[in-house]
Amino acid sequence: MNILKNISSAFWSTDVWLPPNITWEDIKPNSENKYADYQHLIYPLPMAFALLILRYGLERYCFGPFGKSLGIKNTRTKKAPPNDILEKAYVNRKIKHKQILALAKQLDWSERQVERWLRLRRTQDKPSTLTKFCETSWRWFYYTYSFLYGFIILWNKPWLWDIKHCYYNYPYHAVSFDIWWYYMISMAFYWSLCFSQFFDVKRKDFWQMFIHHIAAIALMCFSWVGNLTRIGSLVLLVHDCADIFLEAAKMAKYANYQKVCDCIFVIFTILWIVTRLGVYPFWIIYSTSIEAPKIVPMFPAYYIFNSLLILLLLLHMMWTYLILKIAYNAFYAGQMEGDIRSSSSEEDISDGSTETTTVNNSTTNYVNKQNSR
For residue 328, what pLDDT band results from cuts at 50, 70 and 90? Predict the structure, then answer.
């Protein structure tokens, strides 16, 4: 028990978390000053499951029917014909070229026939367009709500107009009721994404997004415990803005409104660059790195907080490269191709295979022939 107490006291040391000569008693929540209470960080976890339930209801009874009304189908491509031997081999997903040759010999098929069956089987497991539309609609719904709510509650806050108010009289910053909910729901949303990401449509930047969610949660926890909620609320507001148009562009693409998708994507790209590579580094990070040390004595937790902000900036730079790459390709192709920023992952089924073409009409003919055998 003494060891645990020593670890706890070392972890919550005021020398780490607070500016010099400030103690936890100084910013302890009371009836007069409602400072951030670290015990409230447990609330977003049950709230995350509530959001998952809300998401399920909206996807099933709102986004799904809406997607169908736009002509988005819930059906997948044709199923691969039943084959126990190939089904057992498919469990491994990554099948080497030697295995394909062995399977072709065992079934008295050609190599191409085996590859086509595997390709059909892989496509069969992919989520439908309606499923992806519903997931995207949920994120669009949240980001729209979060940005509008954040903008409304921050409109009359002095630190929105003069960021130096984030440091004046620090750490004696009471957390108002509206900021409390802004933080709690935001943390709950990112916790819900951490849980649901393992069941949602798998995408190429799976781990980058997972790191992003964890970094976002860590940032909010650090800012909450260290009473840095003012700068934290600005970070949330800046991040939600462009994501609204990102998800809206995806929704338009899934609904086959290509021109609408292209227009929204242009707006998204401009907003992303302005907010993530303009406002965020040159307003927020500049303030936390250059202006804050002139007003507030620095302490270890603040350096960790600022490092997490810079980590997010590095992720922004990586995603900006992907976005500009998509925009460049779209300029020459005439339309945006594929998913945006986070394209669906596609596993390689046949390592070293000579068959690299996609499923087409010949696959359909092949299935018909096998059904008649």
Answer: confident
